[in-house]
Amino acid sequence: MYETCSPDIAMYALRRTDRETAQDIVAETFTIAWRRFDDVPEEPLPWLYGVARRVLANQRRSSRRLTALRRKLAPDADTAPELADPKLGAAFRELLEIDREILMLVAWEGLTPSEAAVVLGCTSTAARLRLHRARNRLANALGLSSSDIAPEHVIEEVS
Predict the structure, then answer these.
(1) One domain for residues 54 and 92
(2) Are residue 66 and residue 11 in the same domain, yes or no?
């Protein structure tokens, strides 16, 4: 069945989607045919076309949901918090991701270092150390000493 029908199913899929997706459609179609072998009629090609059509529809729905989810989760310039000082924003963007994350958890989300530790999956001591180091790196990037930056005001969000 695969040898005789797979070229037709592949062409069906290729006329409707890209090559990589078409290969997935063919594979899924014959996987379903294998699982439902007792349901496959004596002349399998029309039945396989129907299966391929439904597999393609499922793939398209899945792709639309994934695109919508990515769009929803993408950072939006209108909703992203702005930093009060452009120099601070530039210095903040230069920090490593782990430094930005601990600073945002404490300053923007209002978490304690112990609560941030839960988010980061580390100990409270490690979170406090990361926070201390992140503040120092931010101060250095701004050309300040760490004592010039008040711990509770490292990053201020503009309303």
Answers:
(1) no
(2) yes
Residue 70 pLDDT greater than 50, yes or no: yes
The token duo for 91 is 């210095």
Residues in the chain: 159
Provide the residue range defining the domain that includes 37.
Answer: 2-73
pTM of the entire predicted model: 0.47
Mean pLDDT value across the chain: 84
Fill in the DSSP letter of residue 82: P
* Residue 78: partners with Cβ closer than 8 Å, 6 or more residues away: none
Task: Output the domain CATH number for residue 147.
Answer: 1.10.10.10
Contact 9, 26 (CB under 8 A): yes
The token pair at 37 is 């072998």
Chain segment 2-42, per-residue pLDDT in tens: 999 999 999 999 999 999 999 999 999 999 999 999 999 99
- Domain ends where: 39, 73, 107? 73
